[in-house]
C-alpha cells in the first residue's frame, strides 16, 4: 500500500460536504502518485499565481528555512505539500477554486512584503511588535484559507437569521428555504480535514455569496466556477479582509449534513450558541 493510500483511505467521499470535490478527490486519491496527478491537473488548467508563475505542488522540503509559506508560493508558484490530509485538501481547493486561492495568496504576499519593509526599520518593528507586523488582513486571509465555508444563497432573510444566531429560524423554520435557496460549499482545507472525523462542534467562518436563483440549478462544476469568479471579484472590490467579514456556522447544522437534526439537536447551546450582545 502506498503512503498516499495510508492517509487518503480515511476519507469518506460519500459525505455531503465533499460533493464539490468528490470526483476530483477520488481521481487523485486513486492515482499511483497523487502529487504527480495534482500537478498534471494544475498544468491542464494552466493554473498560475498572480505573478503568472505556474502553480506546482512540491515537497515540503522545497520550502527554504526562514521563507514564509505564502511568499514562497508567490515567488515560485510552488505550493509546499506534505503527505497528509491537510495539504491534500489544500491542493483540492487550489484546483476547485483557483481564482480565490490566487487572490488570497496575492493579499498575503503583499502584506508579507509590507511587514518586511517595516521590520527593516528596527525602531518601527520594536514599537509595533510581532502581532501588529503580521496584521489583521493576514489573520483574516488565513482564517478564510483554513476554515471558510461559502454560503451560496438567494435569500437575504436566511443570511440575516444566521448572522444573529437565530438557529431555530434558519435551520427549522426556514429549513425548506435553506434547502431550495441555499447551499454550502467548503473552502477551508483545515475545515475539511476536521470533518474526516466529524463532531458536532465543528464551526466554519462563513462567507456569503449571493447568486441569482437560476445559478443554484447549475451543475456542481459550473457552480464552483461561478462562485470562484464571484468571490474573487468580492475580494478585489474590498481590497482586503477583516475577521468581521465572517460569521460562525456549526457545519453539521446544515440541512441534510447530519442525523438527527431535530429540535433537540439545534437546542444545544454549547454548539449553537446565542449571539453575545456587546
TrEMBL record:
Xref: Pfam families: DUF3025 (PF11227)
Protein name, entry field: DUF3025 domain-containing protein
Species of origin: Oxalicibacterium solurbis
Organism phylogeny: Bacteria, Pseudomonadati, Pseudomonadota, Betaproteobacteria, Burkholderiales
Amino acid at each position: 500500500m502506498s503512503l498516499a493510500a495510508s492517509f487518503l483511505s480515511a476519507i469518506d467521499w460519500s459525505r455531503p460536504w465533499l460533493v464539490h470535490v468528490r470526483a476530483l478527490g477520488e481521481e487523485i486519491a486513486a492515482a499511483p502518485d497523487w502529487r504527480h496527478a495534482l500537478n498534471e491537473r494544475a498544468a491542464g488548467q494552466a493554473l498560475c499565481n498572480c505573478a503568472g508563475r505556474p502553480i506546482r505542488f512540491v515537497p515540503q522540503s522545497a520550502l527554504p528555512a526562514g521563507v514564509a509559506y505564502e511568499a514562497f508560493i508567490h515567488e515560485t508558484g510552488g505550493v509546499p505539500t506534505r503527505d497528509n490530509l491537510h495539504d491534500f485538501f489544500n491542493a483540492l481547493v487550489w484546483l476547485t477554486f483557483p481564482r480565490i486561492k490566487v487572490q488570497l495568496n496575492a493579499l498575503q504576499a503583499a502584506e508579507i512584503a509590507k511587514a518586511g519593509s517595516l521590520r527593516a526599520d528596527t525602531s518601527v518593528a520594536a514599537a509595533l511588535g510581532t502581532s501588529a507586523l503580521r496584521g489583521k488582513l493576514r489573520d483574516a486571509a488565513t482564517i478564510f484559507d483554513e476554515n471558510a465555508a461559502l454560503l451560496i444563497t438567494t435569500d437575504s432573510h436566511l443570511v440575516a437569521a444566521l448572522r444573529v444566531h437565530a438557529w431555530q429560524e434558519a435551520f427549522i423554520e426556514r429549513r425548506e428555504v435553506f434547502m431550495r435557496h441555499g447551499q454550502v460549499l467548503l473552502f477551508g482545507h483545515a475545515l475539511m480535514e476536521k470533518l474526516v472525523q466529524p463532531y458536532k462542534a465543528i464551526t466554519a467562518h462563513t462567507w456569503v455569496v449571493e447568486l441569482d436563483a437560476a445559478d443554484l440549478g447549475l451543475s456542481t462544476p459550473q457552480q464552483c466556477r461561478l462562485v470562484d469568479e464571484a468571490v474573487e471579484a468580492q475580494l478585489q472590490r474590498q481590497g482586503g479582509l477583516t475577521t468581521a467579514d465572517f460569521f460562525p456556522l456549526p457545519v453539521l447544522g446544515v440541512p441534510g449534513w447530519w442525523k438527527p437534526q431535530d429540535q433537540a439537536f439545534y437546542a444545544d447551546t454549547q454548539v449553537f450558541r446565542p449571539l453575545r450582545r456587546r
